[in-house]
Amino acid sequence: MTTLNGVRRTLGYYLTRPLVRLLARTPITPNVITWFGVLIAAGAGVLIALGHPFAAGFVVLFGGFFDTIDGALARYTGQTSRFGAILDSTLDRLAEAVVLLGLMVMYAGQQSTAGVVVVGIVWVASVLVSYIRARAEAMGLECEVGLFTRPERVVVLVLGLLLSPIGNALLITLCVIATLSVVTVAQRLLHVWRLTKTG
What we know:
By secondary structure, the protein is an all-alpha fold. The protein has one domain (about 1-199): Four Helix Bundle (Hemerythrin (Met), subunit A) (Up-down Bundle). The chain contains seven helices and no strands. It has helices at about 1-25, 30-50, 55-75, 80-110, 115-140, 150-160, 170-199. α6 (about 150-160) packs antiparallel against α7 (about 170-199). It starts with a helix and ends with a helix.
C-alpha cells in the first residue's frame, strides 16, 4: 500500500507542478483554491440533482484537479499551516458530500430506492475511511493504507458520471465505489488493530 500511495503522490507532483509554479507568481493563496474547489463541487452537485450527471462528470473532473493544487501550492510557497491542513481536509469532505447529496436527490426524484441506498453506503463508507485515518493519526499512528481512498473514489465517480447515459452504468459504478470503500474501511481498521496490538 505504501507503493500505491507513493504512485499517487508522484503522479500528482508531475501533473500539478507547472500550474503550481504559475500560481505561485500570483496573489492566489492555497485556501482560496480550496474554497474554489468546493464551489465547483457544489455546481456539480446541483447539475446532478437537476438530472445532468454527464455534464457533472466534467465539472467533478475539473474540481478534482484543483483539489490536488491547493496542498501542492502551499508546500511550494511555504504557506503550509496546521489550520490550512484542517481546512483542506474539512472542505474535501464537504465537496464530496455535496456531490453525493446531488446523487441522492437525483435518485430520490427517480424513485430509485436502490440508488439512494447505494449512495448512502458510499457516503458513510467514505466518511469512515477518512475518520479512521484522522483518529489513528491523532493517536500517533500512521494510517495511509487502503485500496480505495478519496482520489480513487473521485476518478471512478467521474467515470460513472460520464458513462451515465449508458443504462445503469452510473449505479453499477457507485456499487463498485461502495464495495471498495467498505473494503478500505476494513483494511484501515485491521492495520490500526495490528499497530495497537504490537505497540
